[in-house]
Amino acid sequence: MQYVGRFAPTPSGSLHLGSLVTALASWLDARSQQGKWLLRIEDLDPPREEPGAADQILYSLEQLGLFWDGPLVYQSQRSAAYQQALQLLQDKQLAYPCSCTRKELAGFSIYPGFCRQGPRYPNRPLAWRFAVDNNLKARWQDAIQGPQYWSLADAGDVVIRRKDQLWAYQLAVTLDDLEQGITHIVRGIDLLDSTPWQINLAQALQPEAPAFQYAHLPVIVNKQGQKLSKQNLAPALDTTQATQLLYRSLLVLQQRVDPAWLQEKPATLLEEAAKNWQLERVPKVTQLPEESLKTCISTD
Ligand SMILES: [Zn+2]
């Protein structure tokens, strides 16, 4: 089976150090196994997007030498596929409408199932939830974080279509990963607790599909311990320093490097890095400080 990986940024802002580390790790893991690396723009939520951000991300990836294979996928253009998937789940009685408001669910850590037997207030705007298999235990060997064992009963029924009619993340991601033939998912550990839903959804949507292989990377955090993001004002990357940025990211990922690479073009550095890539060297932690990216080389 050929390796097919992917990078799936949300265009809420430019590429920053955190998203660079994720893009680089998934690119290297794919390339080191002669795999494909696909790119998907997760533009499901127009109000949260910044005009031009998707194009800026693509431009930054090109400047960094992180080229992708095949056509770009924009989730905003996949409504018909998501509708079909919702229909399939409805036909299998694995999706149900939910009228609950945020206020009614305050204090519950998981969805308490109020609408499992029908919406409590059918005249309200309705979201759709996926009825998880409460008996399912999601188990996988995470290539970075080690063996995982999660009970779907502890995850609860998840929204797959929002009451404002926007498609929800879990359904879109799972269907796209299935339809793009993704085999390996390398992404930030902030998505670890989404994985049980995605495993359950994949089984419901395409029971015959092989299981995804997962690797959850530590996320890059600022001094306040917050994941770098547009909301936390993470600065955009200066891709005129592409080689430096890639080199620092490799050090943060605890990969073997050669200082001679700093004199190279990004494409050459990446080629060498792919030859030396060892996923098992990535630190098995949940967070890495942004500072480590800024100070990890002395040649500044
Ligand atoms: Zn409800």
UniProtKB/TrEMBL annotation:
Native source organism of the sequence: Marinospirillum celere
Function: Catalyzes the tRNA-independent activation of glutamate in presence of ATP and the subsequent transfer of glutamate onto a tRNA(Asp). Glutamate is transferred on the 2-amino-5-(4,5-dihydroxy-2-cyclopenten-1-yl) moiety of the queuosine in the wobble position of the QUC anticodon.
PANTHER family (alphabetical): GLUTAMATE--TRNA LIGASE, GLUTAMYL-Q TRNA(ASP) SYNTHETASE
Binding residue positions for ATP: 230
Motif 'KMSKS' region per UniProt: ranges: 227-231
Binding positions for Zn(2+) per the UniProt entry: 98, 100, 111, 115
Protein name: Glutamyl-Q tRNA(Asp) synthetase
Cofactor: Zn(2+)
One GO CC term, this protein: cytosol
Motif ('HIGH' region): 9-19
NCBIfam families noted in UniProt: PRK05710.1-3, queuosine_YadB
Enzyme class label: ligase
Similarity section: Belongs to the class-I aminoacyl-tRNA synthetase family. GluQ subfamily.
Gene Ontology MF annotations: ATP binding; glutamate-tRNA ligase activity; zinc ion binding
GO biological process: glutamyl-tRNA aminoacylation; tRNA modification
Cofactor-binding details, from the entry: Binds 1 zinc ion per subunit.
Its EC number(s): 6.1.1.-
Domain Glutamyl/glutaminyl-tRNA synthetase class Ib catalytic residue range list: 5-105, 124-249
SUPFAM superfamilies per the UniProt record, alphabetical: Nucleotidylyl transferase
HAMAP family documented for this protein: Glu_Q_tRNA_synth (MF_01428)
